[in-house]
Amino acid sequence: MSVHIQLNNCPPFYTNLDDISGRVILNLPSNENISAIMVKLEGESKTVLPRPPGGQQSLDPSLVTQRDQRQGAAKEDHKLLYKLIKVFPSKGLLKQGESYMIRAGQHEYPFQFKMPLENICCDPDFQNDHPETFKGGFYGQIPSASHIKATLPPSLTSFPGEAEIRYFVKATVQRPSRFKGNRRCEIGFKFIPIEPPTAPLTTNEVYARRPYMFNNNNIQVNESSMPRGEVDARLPSPAVLTCNKPVPLRLVMRNHNEAKKQVYLLFFQMNLVGLTEVRALDVKRSEFSFWVIMRADRLAIPIGSPGDGHGTETVVDPRLWNHVPLPNTVTSSFRACNLMRSYELEIRVGLGCESPGDAPPQTVLVVLRFQIEINSGLSPPATHLDDLVTGPAASNTPVQPPRVAHDPAYPPQLGTAGSVVVEDAPPSYEDHIADELAPVEGVTRNYSGVTDVNAAAISEAGSSRSSDLVDEPPPFDEAESTGIETESSKN
Q1: What's the Cα-to-Cα distance from 331 to each of 15, 264, 341, 363, 483, rounded to whole Å?
Q2: Mean confidence (pLDDT) of the chain
Q3: Which residues of 250-278 are buried (b: 16+ CB within 10 A; e: fewer)?
Q4: pTM for the whole thing?
Q5: Helices marked H in 31-113
Q6: Confidence tier at 199 by pLDDT (50, 70, 90)
Q7: CA 353, CA 228: separation in Å to the nearest integer?
Q8: In which residue ranges is the amino acid composition biased (Polar residues) (predicted)?
């Protein structure tokens, strides 16, 4: 017997509200008794971190398995997505516990799922309906306060053995015989969430500003003749970038004095730093990722003209960087129960000026940083945006009868007149309308943020890796920069 899954029209990645359809292909060399064929759509967020030697854990030791205590590892697993359908037998064909003889040959069973908007690990109703999924290995050690409800995070396999977010379709062929085990097959896929609704574009900007100054090494030359000014980098407000798109940066140079020397732009580099916060129970760790978006050196671009007055602004030509998109390995910002990804944009500007006399030219390096977010670039459907603006339709909720007055010191018991009505929490509006929304329409960009969607999951033993932030040494001495700390605010 062999079983495998084939997805229909498999795109480079899936997103929220997409339909995932395919077939379970079952090949039987001989007749076989089959009880059921189940297909699951699952998403998991797993973290494994080593405990520091002699470290104190904040959790109750009785909540941690003996195996984890021996291995000195902290593990935390969250079920982000879980949908289950039975493709065989059809509803009402067989009773519970019965099996059906399937003839030898190849058999196909179609299935279809719809990707939801949000995760389900914090849904108490779902945990009660599927206790086998949320007890023991998944949530036996995790406090309920650690669950958060958010949009499904993107696939992540950048930290093998330490942290991963996987999405996959799994098929199980159940056989009634105790001597014949069930056959399973799973296939992974990449996932990128849709971007949250954003406000209309405005002219507001966020900025990072830092001054520069060239030193005078010749006592015969007046100090005021050396150029002084500031570098001003600006992004649209809010500071949100889009995957696989160029950075909408504006670079402005401003004079602080009327100098007689020409200032040149000699070097420009744009870096992206990703911070991934990994948590496993009471152990936390920060992992850094580094991308060089673009680098241009050996430049000689004049900034303004000698003799420009105080406050003169010069805008650097954006054609230097506006044709370079973000690397396709950069995923969107996200926050999950045990993982969070944030970004920082770093701008390095190298300036040069002729020195008086026979002294070599002076160079200074100005570094500016932004705290930014990155969106996927997949806009939600227009119907979803309209519903968020207008709100859900008025519900026909029956009016509760007036409560009977009672003494506050002796509140009535539940179920009696005047007692507080306890009801189950209703589903969110996003979950209610998810099945009615159409798939996201737009350009499907290339995305390779996952190394191997079908790679083996984190092992039970678990291991951890270390990640170093590798940075190329700047071509200038950063200590020569006399700027202040980076600022960020609305213009």
Answers
A1: 13, 35, 9, 35, 32
A2: 77
A3: ebebbbebebebebbbbbbbbbbbbebeb
A4: 0.75
A5: 66-71
A6: confident
A7: 11
A8: 55-66
